[in-house]
Amino acid sequence: xxxxxxxxxxxxxxxxxxxxxxxxxxxxxxxxxxxxxxxxxxxxxxxxxxxxxxxxxxxxxxxxxxxxxxxxxxxxxxxxxxxxxxxxxxxxxxxxxxxxxxxxxxxxxxxxxxxxxxxxxxxxxxxxxxxxxxxxxxxxxxxxxxxxxxxxxxxxxxxxxxxxxxxx
Length: 168
Known about the structure:
Shape: rod-shaped
Order of helices and strands: HH
Number of helices: 2
Structural class: mainly alpha
Largest sheet: none
Strand content: under 5%
Number of strands: 0
């Protein structure tokens, strides 16, 4: 049973060594351990603060990127709208120009047709006059010996033919 019950001397020395180790730890060991634990706690707290700040910055960056993207879409829509308006203006201008050109060409064609009509009428009149002179010449040759009444008849015929041509 000596093994199970300690001697009082052993108990004294064990208590003394325990107290000595405890005092040494109390004086130098525990403050160092507590200091290291506090430093670790502060490091973790700082890391959490930095992580929280990084998350806030990331959220702000995401908001900014969304606003920039929205602005870019708005600018794109404005540019597309402006391009469509420009295209419509160009098309309208081209149509207006085409209508003006068509009207000008139509006017020129009318003027040309009128000029050609006048030329044709002049030519027909000159041909009728030549024809009338030839007819009169032939009639005069045949009836040269006859009296003046026949000559009046020829003149009347020529006048009638020219007045009919002028009416057309």
